[in-house]
């Protein structure tokens, strides 16, 4: 932006009460809506002064949303475009940073809208239906549900909070007219908050800000609102978008209100804000049929199911349609079954009118981003665009001596088919053939993005090997550019020194540092190369005694930062094939920390521990105590240290250029790459 928010003498994080008292003009409040236009004038003078050159390049607004008390729309614009607005439906996405309480808030909304029976058992975070989501406590896939409030149907889409799954959020925003931006009452806007808000504003969506977890003892709603408002200005939001409604809520208790001190006994104020501030879908009811496939699901009996919002026309069961990728690429299909979302399930429907979100069966080869259009006069909608991947990993068939012991699918054909099938649903991922016929290069938004795919494949019975993560560099004007990310680290003050030193070694540049209140923690903001983040999570937890919280998001491509050493220690490598013994491990553990215990089958080249010095060391962990005919009064008691238990994520963080992770349904092992060892000789 041409004018920074901090240029005003008022402090960047001035609490609302101080901010309001810094002028003689008394701001107006309308139904407890935060008077953002008034604040904008305090920060930047006239609202006109926030107009920047960047504004002209933004996607034009679909509607002009003014949420003061009533929803006002520009009638002239609607008349000109011959679009009408449905007032009986609201399509919203719930977006936020990870762990700010999206899924818990959806749980409370479902319970209070009587989706479940009073005596029905409902598990916690019901929208996280995937096994992996439940184990990790995160949302990975976006999911649809709907509730009814005062004769208004509200279609709700729960989205992931991790930046690695940002592709899910980007395509979901095509289906909705507004978003609930959930912000933690202590942390305030975080990296992923910025990313999802930027995308929502580019689409011209209306935003309702929900300050969640307001019942936390250290909650600071004034700071959170001021920070969120500054974020709107930084992202070049329009005046109408900056007039956002603020709702204070506790998703866990199922309460919401228009002020933090006065919460209602239910989420009524939140539902009212959604109906009043989020506009209904703008549709061409009599126009030619148009529906963009935004999500794909698979059912064993029904086959592929395309999910999306109907933009124009009426869709009927049994209708012949045209499926278009572009103007030139079209094919024909037939809708065999049609479903809409009601409460927590899909309900069969005969017809669906424009503006509603529906699921379509019968088109077996439909892909995300294709348009289901009228058979005679249908035209495709713009395809979905997502940001480019930044990290890649090499997948190859398992070449260890233990191949085929545990896995069901072990050939390169099995691996290839599964990886290319993932592309049908995962838009932000790319798969390319590698240098050899049994190697494939998988690119994604981050290490977690690809690790989730590896874990899913492992559970499906696949056996394969993966190499270390590498960043995807670019060359512009013969200059090498690499991806940089914004890292926000929250750490107690006593561990600040080691954390700052660690990030400095990883070529990180500190951008900002501030205290976060009474909890004695410091928030540090860094700009750091993506290479520096590989393997950082375990290191930062070690130096901070497990207390640091690290959040990252892609920022931009910048100049090559130079060499980065991500690991100071070498590996302990098995010397021969066999079964590990207590006798051998007793002497081996003096060389470093072990990954294995006694009685474990190992093979030559397998990594069995971390060396305490730089450089690798070969060990014989299968050596047995020599038997003699000399009697001894007592066998020597061997005390072994507890071996390190590394998860899949830990192993991928640990390995370096000449190492591989062997993934099977039952085991995760690490080994030296035999191809690179031969080359080095």
UniProtKB/TrEMBL annotation:
<dbReference type="GO" id="GO:0005829">
    <property type="term" value="C:cytosol"/>
</dbReference>
<dbReference type="InterPro" id="IPR035651">
    <property type="entry name" value="BipA_V"/>
</dbReference>
<dbReference type="GO" id="GO:0003924">
    <property type="term" value="F:GTPase activity"/>
</dbReference>
<keyword id="KW-0648">Protein biosynthesis</keyword>
<dbReference type="GO" id="GO:0009409">
    <property type="term" value="P:response to cold"/>
</dbReference>
<dbReference type="InterPro" id="IPR000795">
    <property type="entry name" value="T_Tr_GTP-bd_dom"/>
</dbReference>
<dbReference type="Pfam" id="PF00009">
    <property type="entry name" value="GTP_EFTU"/>
</dbReference>
<dbReference type="Pfam" id="PF03144">
    <property type="entry name" value="GTP_EFTU_D2"/>
</dbReference>
<keyword id="KW-0251">Elongation factor</keyword>
<dbReference type="InterPro" id="IPR047041">
    <property type="entry name" value="BipA_GTP-bd_dom"/>
</dbReference>
<dbReference type="Pfam" id="PF00679">
    <property type="entry name" value="EFG_C"/>
</dbReference>
<dbReference type="InterPro" id="IPR042116">
    <property type="entry name" value="TypA/BipA_C"/>
</dbReference>
<dbReference type="InterPro" id="IPR048876">
    <property type="entry name" value="BipA_C"/>
</dbReference>
<dbReference type="InterPro" id="IPR000640">
    <property type="entry name" value="EFG_V-like"/>
</dbReference>
<dbReference type="GO" id="GO:1990904">
    <property type="term" value="C:ribonucleoprotein complex"/>
</dbReference>
<dbReference type="InterPro" id="IPR004161">
    <property type="entry name" value="EFTu-like_2"/>
</dbReference>
<dbReference type="InterPro" id="IPR009000">
    <property type="entry name" value="Transl_B-barrel_sf"/>
</dbReference>
<dbReference type="InterPro" id="IPR047043">
    <property type="entry name" value="BipA_III"/>
</dbReference>
<dbReference type="InterPro" id="IPR027417">
    <property type="entry name" value="P-loop_NTPase"/>
</dbReference>
<dbReference type="InterPro" id="IPR047042">
    <property type="entry name" value="BipA_II"/>
</dbReference>
<dbReference type="InterPro" id="IPR006298">
    <property type="entry name" value="BipA"/>
</dbReference>
<protein>
    <submittedName>
        <fullName>Elongation factor TypA-like SVR3, chloroplastic</fullName>
    </submittedName>
</protein>
<feature type="domain" description="Tr-type G">
    <location>
        <begin position="87"/>
        <end position="282"/>
    </location>
</feature>
<dbReference type="GO" id="GO:0042254">
    <property type="term" value="P:ribosome biogenesis"/>
</dbReference>
<dbReference type="InterPro" id="IPR035647">
    <property type="entry name" value="EFG_III/V"/>
</dbReference>
<dbReference type="GO" id="GO:0003746">
    <property type="term" value="F:translation elongation factor activity"/>
</dbReference>
<dbReference type="Pfam" id="PF21018">
    <property type="entry name" value="BipA_C"/>
</dbReference>
<dbReference type="InterPro" id="IPR031157">
    <property type="entry name" value="G_TR_CS"/>
</dbReference>
<dbReference type="InterPro" id="IPR005225">
    <property type="entry name" value="Small_GTP-bd"/>
</dbReference>
<dbReference type="GO" id="GO:0005525">
    <property type="term" value="F:GTP binding"/>
</dbReference>
């Amino acid at each position: 932006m041409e004018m920074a928010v901090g240029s005003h003498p008022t402090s960047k994080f001035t609490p609302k009460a101080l901010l309001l008292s810094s002028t003689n003009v008394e701001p107006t409040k309308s139904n407890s809506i935060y008077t953002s236009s008034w604040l904008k004038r305090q920060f930047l003078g006239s609202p006109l002064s926030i107009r920047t050159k960047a504004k002209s390049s933004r996607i034009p607004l679909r509607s002009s949303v003014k949420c003061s008390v009533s929803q006002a729309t520009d009638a002239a614009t609607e008349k000109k475009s011959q679009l009408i607005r449905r007032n009986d439906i609201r399509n919203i996405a719930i977006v936020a940073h990870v762990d700010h309480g999206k899924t818990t808030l959806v749980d409370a909304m479902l319970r209070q809208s009587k989706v479940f029976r009073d005596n029905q058992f409902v598990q916690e975070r019901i929208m996280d239906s995937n096994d992996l989501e439940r184990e990790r406590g995160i949302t990975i896939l976006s999911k649809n549900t709907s509730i009814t409030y005062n004769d208004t149907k509200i279609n709700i889409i729960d989205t992931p909070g991790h930046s690695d799954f940002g592709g899910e959020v980007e395509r979901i925003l095509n289906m909705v007219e507004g978003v609930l931006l959930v912000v933690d009452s202590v942390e305030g806007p975080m990296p992923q908050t910025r990313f999802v808000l930027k995308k929502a504003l580019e689409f011209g969506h209306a935003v309702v800000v929900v300050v969640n977890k307001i019942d936390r003892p250290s909650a600071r709603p004034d700071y959170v609102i001021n920070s969120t408002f500054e974020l709107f200005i930084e992202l070049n939001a329009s005046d109408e978008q900056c007039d956002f409604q603020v709702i204070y809520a506790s998703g866990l208790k199922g309460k919401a209100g228009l002020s933090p001190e006065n919460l209602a006994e239910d989420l009524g104020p939140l539902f009212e804000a959604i109906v009043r501030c989020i506009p209904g879908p703008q549709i061409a009811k009599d126009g030619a049929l148009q529906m963009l496939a935004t999500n794909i699901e698979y059912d064993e009996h029904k086959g592929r199911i395309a999910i999306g919002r109907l933009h124009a026309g009426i869709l009927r069961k049994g209708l012949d349609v045209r499926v278009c990728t572009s103007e030139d690429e079209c094919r024909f299909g037939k809708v065999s079954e049609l479903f809409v979302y009601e409460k927590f399930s899909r309900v069969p429907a005969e017809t669906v009118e424009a503006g509603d979100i529906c699921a379509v069966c019968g088109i077996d080869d439909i892909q995300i981003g294709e348009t289901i259009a009228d058979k005679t006069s249908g035209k495709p909608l713009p395809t979905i665009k997502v940001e480019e991947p930044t990290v890649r990993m090499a997948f190859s068939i398992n070449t260890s001596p233990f191949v085929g012991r545990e896995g069901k699918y072990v050939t390169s054909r099995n691996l290839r088919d599964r990886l290319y099938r993932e592309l049908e649903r995962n838009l932000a991922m790319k798969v390319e053939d590698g240098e050899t016929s049994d190697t494939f290069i998988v690119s994604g938004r981050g290490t977690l993005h690809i690790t989730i795919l590896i874990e899913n494949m492992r559970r499906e019975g696949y056996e394969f090997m993966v190499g270390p993560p590498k960043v995807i560099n670019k060359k512009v004007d013969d200059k090498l550019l690499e991806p940089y990310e914004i890292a926000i680290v929250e750490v107690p003050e006593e561990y600040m020194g080691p954390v700052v030193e660690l990030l400095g070694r990883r070529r990180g540049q500190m951008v900002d540092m501030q205290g976060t209140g009474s909890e004695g923690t410091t928030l540090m903001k860094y700009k750091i190369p993506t290479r520096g983040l590989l393997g950082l999570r375990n290191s930062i937890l070690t130096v901070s005694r497990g207390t640091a919280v690290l959040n990252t998001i892609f920022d931009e491509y910048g100049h090559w930062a130079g060499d980065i050493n991500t690991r100071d220690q070498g590996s302990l490598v098995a010397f021969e094939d066999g079964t590990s013994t207590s006798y051998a491990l007793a002497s081996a553990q003096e060389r470093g920390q072990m990954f294995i215990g006694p009685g474990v089958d190992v093979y030559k080249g397998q990594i069995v521990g971390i060396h305490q010095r730089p450089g690798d060391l070969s060990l014989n962990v299968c050596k047995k105590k020599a038997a003699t005919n000399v009697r001894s009064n007592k066998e020597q008691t061997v005390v072994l240290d507890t071996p390190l238990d590394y998860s899949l994520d830990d192993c991928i963080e640990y390995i370096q250029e000449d190492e591989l992770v062997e993934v099977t349904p039952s085991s995760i092992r690490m080994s030296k790459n035999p191809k690179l060892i031969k080359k080095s000789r």
